[in-house]
Design goal:
The protein has 160 residues and is mostly beta strands. It is built from two helices and ten strands. The radius of gyration is 17 Å and the shape is globular. The relative contact order is 0.27.
Length: 160
Amino acid sequence: MSNLNRWEGIGRLGQDIELRYLPDGRAVANFNIGVDDSYKSKQTGQRVEQTEWVRCVAFGPTAEFLGQWLRKGARLLAVGKLKTREYEKDGSKRYVTEIHLAQGTEIIDWPAKDSQPRQPAQQAPRNGSRPQPGQQAAPPDYDSFDDDIPFAPAHYLMGV
């Protein structure tokens, strides 16, 4: 008997991707995508707009690539494994469930052909350089959550 742990969803980025670096120097990108979970109400027959926010994590070259090409509001087909991990904040244990992106993740809303990749925001050590192996990168702030972006067309989110 084999196990299956695979998640797929199309969503829009809630904010620009911020890269961080692990102590071994590998890039990591933590970001949220809004996934449409709207439905038709049985009582009123009206469509009820609803967004589910999904935390995603990418590592290494994938993290750097997504950080260069994706902007707030861009659509992404996220494919990966569901993982829950524990961390401590203010002396109490907390848990976060994330999708660890894998092969099959695709950018749906590519920038215009003449666009250049951007330098993604990075969390760097105080000296301003990229962390080297053995240096401690700042932990992600899992309590910050940008849920002010509804699931909406790209032109609405991108201001076009």
